[in-house]
Design a protein that fits this description.
This protein is an alpha+beta fold. It has three domains: about 10-130, Butyryl-Coa Dehydrogenase, subunit A, domain 1, CATH 1.10.540.10; about 135-235, Butyryl-CoA Dehydrogenase, subunit A, domain 2, CATH 2.40.110; about 245-390, Butyryl-CoA Dehydrogenase, subunit A, domain 3. About 50% of the residues lie in helices and about 15% in strands. The chain has helices spanning about 25-40, 45-50, 60-65, 80-95, 95-115, 120-130, 245-275, 290-315, 325-350, 360-370, 375-390; strands at about 75, 75-80, 135-140, 155-160, 165-175, 180-190, 190-200, 205-210, 220-230, 280, 285. The strands form four sheets. It has a four-stranded antiparallel beta sheet, with helices on one face. Strands 3-6-7 form a three-stranded mixed beta sheet, with helices on one face. A hairpin with a 2-residue loop joins strand 1 and strand 2 (about 75-80). Helix 4 (about 80-95) packs antiparallel against helix 5 and helix 7 packs antiparallel against helix 10.
Length: about 400
């Protein structure tokens, strides 16, 4: 028997009522991060994007909220659930992917590398100050000629007595010049190993990449290591081979699955509001069939993608998430978020290409997200190999 009075009218954004699937604590985290984005990020992000900057002090502010390494436990980290971390990524990305990238690189790459692969001494030395945002980290894996094929990296660390001598170049490194410490992956005579390299190490230099049209509210750098002498204690002792950095990337990709839905939501909400108020031919453009079709398609993919993110988050918290699931989520949600952003831009017309509205900024950012942390092609082939049993990478 159906009781119409008990049926809630679906929200125009949350059509599936996904909010009802969140716990009270998860909603509290969402509202806290959303408030931070509303008060601190949105009033400034268009200027940051235009000037190509991200204020360093934002790190301490994110740390004060407990968002840096929030899914790690101990060493000053909150030990939050995977879903809670995902929700935070979604809300940060609704502000700008550059802010979410900062948080992701700090917590899911640099801090996670130390947390998962570091010694107890390394964890105690670095993680508490990184959780507070006092120490900023970056993650040096990608090289100029080796993005999707990190196994071919040229960075090399050789033994010299009890020390290591590191040489090489890393490119497209988020937080690079902001970082106080870099997690650097290099070939050795013992395979690929990870090293903690403080900024003040002799021979370590960084330079920012300029003229970006995407992720402008994010610092992206080149790191150069010239005969950097590191003590043996700088090596992450538990990471051997590519499994080390790839495990870190899997953590960051999980945040992207959620984050892209934040960008998509911001674009959809901007387009929906614009369609209700922009009058053409004596009526709002939202009254036209083609505009409604665009909005409906955007709402469908936004809700499906958010539900997918939540499902994968619950799986992660239950210890059931496989790397293939992460590729599934990253491939789908980035692709659909980019489609939503592009469609939203058409609804806004010429206004859609200005920073007065968030859409073109999110759209440009998503072009980078489509490529980093595994291109759409790579994730397609990962899934293809899984479902067919045949590798197509070479």
């Amino acid at each position: 028997m159906t009781h119409a009075s008990a049926t809630r009218v679906p929200d125009a954004v949350d059509l599936l009522g996904i909010d009802a699937l969140l716990s009270h604590e998860e909603r509290l985290i969402r509202d806290t991060v959303r408030g931070f984005v509303r008060d601190r990020v949105l009033p400034n992000v268009a200027r940051w994007f235009e000037e190509g900057i991200l204020p360093r002090e934002l790190g301490r502010e994110l740390g004060a909220l407990g968002l840096l390494g929030m899914h790690l436990e101990g060493y000053g980290c909150p030990g939050a659930s995977a879903v809670a971390y995902g929700i935070a990524c979604m809300e940060l990305d609704a502000g700008d992917a550059g802010v979410r990238s900062f948080c992701s690189v700090q917590g899911s790459l640099a801090m996670y590398a130390i947390y998962r692969w570091g010694s107890e001494e390394q964890k105690r030395e670095y993680l508490p100050s990184m959780a507070r945002g006092e120490t900023i980290g970056c993650f040096g894996l990608t090289e100029p000629d080796f993005g999707s094929n990190p196994a071919g990296m040229r960075a090399f660390a050789r033994r010299d007595g009890s020390d290591w001598i590191l040489n090489g170049t890393k490119l497209w490194i988020t937080n690079g010049s902001l970082a106080d410490v870099a997690i650097v992956w290099a070939n050795t005579g013992e395979g690929i190993r990870g090293f903690i390299v403080p900024k003040q190490t002799a021979g370590f230099t960084s330079s920012d990449i300029h003229h970006k049209i995407s992720l402008r509210a994010s610092i992206t750098s080149e790191l150069v290591f010239t005969d950097c002498r590191l003590p043996d204690s700088a090596m992450l002792p538990l990471a051997k081979g590519l499994a080390g950095p790839l495990a870190c990337l899997n953590e960051a990709r999980f945040g992207i699955i959620w984050g892209t839905m934040g960008s998509a939501r911001a674009c959809y909400e901007a387009a929906l509001e614009y369609a209700k108020t922009r009058v053409q031919f004596d009526k709002p453009i939202g009254a036209f069939q083609l505009t409604q079709q665009k909005l409906v398609n955007m709402a469908l993919e936004l809700n499906k993608g958010t539900l997918l993110a939540l499902h994968l988050g619950r799986m992660k918290d239950a210890g059931q998430l496989h790397s293939t699931h992460v590729s599934f989520g990253k491939l789908n949600n980035v692709r659909e978020a980019l489609k939503i952003a592009r469609e939203a831009r058409t609804i806004l017309g010429a206004n859609g290409v200005t920073l007065e509205y968030p859409v073109i900024r999110h759209m440009n950012n998503l072009e980078s997200v489509l490529t980093y942390e595994g291109t759409s092609e790579v994730h397609t082939l990962i899934l293809g190999q899984h479902i067919t049993g045949q590798a197509a990478f070479a």
